[in-house]
Hints:
Blueprint: E1 12-13, E2 23-26, H1 32-41, E3 46-48, E4 53-57, H2 61-90, E5 98-100, E6 104-107, H3 113-120, E7 126-128, E8 133-137, H4 141-157, H5 160-170, H6 174-187, E9 190-194, E10 204-207, E11 210-221, H7 224-227, E12 238-244, H8 248-253, H9 272-292
Parallel strand pairs: 1-3
Antiparallel strand pairs: 2-4, 3-4, 5-6, 6-8, 7-8, 9-12, 10-11, 11-12
Organism: Rhizobium chutanense
Protein name: HARP domain-containing protein
Amino acid sequence: MIETKSPADHNEASPGEDGAKPGADIAFPYDRMTVEQFRRRFPRARWNDDRKAWFVPGRTASRRIGRWLAELEAEADTHADAKGRDAFVFDPIDSPYLQRGKAGFRIRTPYSKTVVDELREVPFSRWDGDLRIWHVPFRSYEDLRRRWPDIEAAARRNEPEERRRRAEERKGSEQDIRSRLRSAERKRRRYPLLSHDLPPIGRPVAITYGIVVFTEISGELVAADVAADFYPDVTEDHVWGYWRQPTLEELVRTRPAKRSPGGDIAWWQPTIEELRPARRTARSREARRRAKTP
Length: 294
C-alpha cells in the first residue's frame, strides 16, 4: 500500500526517532475514514514525514498491523458481496446453468473449453471437482454478467442433444469425412520431422497438436502423397517421429521457454502459457485414472 497524501495535521516523528525503537511502518492511500480507524486501532502510531509512512511502535507491531489489514480486506469483501447480491436482484441472470447460493453462484454446464476459459477470467471463481460445479462469489457478479452471454451460448452448443444434432447434419459430408481422417491420423501418434532438426527423445516439446513426448524417430521417410492432406509443408527430408502424451510430473519438471519462437517450425520448447493448460489437462487425466483404479 502506498501513501498518496501527507496529512499535515498529524503528529510527526522527527527523523531518526523511530529508527532505534522496535515497531513497523505502514503506508496506505490517504482516506479520512481509514486514518480514523487506524488511529483508533493504533493510538500510539506516529506519522514519519521522511519515510511517508506511519510508524507503529512495539515488538508485535507487524503482527497487529497484519491482523488489521486482514479485517479491512474482509470488510471490503463483505461490502463487495452485498453490492454484487443487490446487482443480481436488480438485474438477474435467468439461466438453467446458474443457481444462487448462500455465498455466491453455482454454475454447472456441459463441458466446453470456452466456458472454462471464460470462468477462469472471472475474479475469485473456483472449480469444485467433487461436485463438478464452478463457484463464483457475489462480489464477482458484474464480471460474470459481462461474460455470461458467451458462457451460456457455449454451454448450449455443447448440450448432448445439440452435439448429436450437429453430428447428424455433418454425417457423410466432406467436412465429416476429413474430420474422421484427421482423427484417424492423430491416433497413429506420428508426426513429420525434418531429419536435420530432430527433437529430444523423452522430453516434452510443443508441436501443432499440443505438448507431446517423442519416444522414437523411425527414420522412415514421410511419403508426400500420404501426408500432404494433413501436413501440407512436408518435404522429402521429413521422417516420422512417434509420440505419447506427457505425464504431469514431466510437465511440472519442464522449464518453459521465455518467449514463443515464432516462424514455421515443426517443434519448439513450450512457453508457460502452453504448459499451464497442459498441466491442468494432465492433472485431470491422472485423477480420472486414479478414480478408475480399484
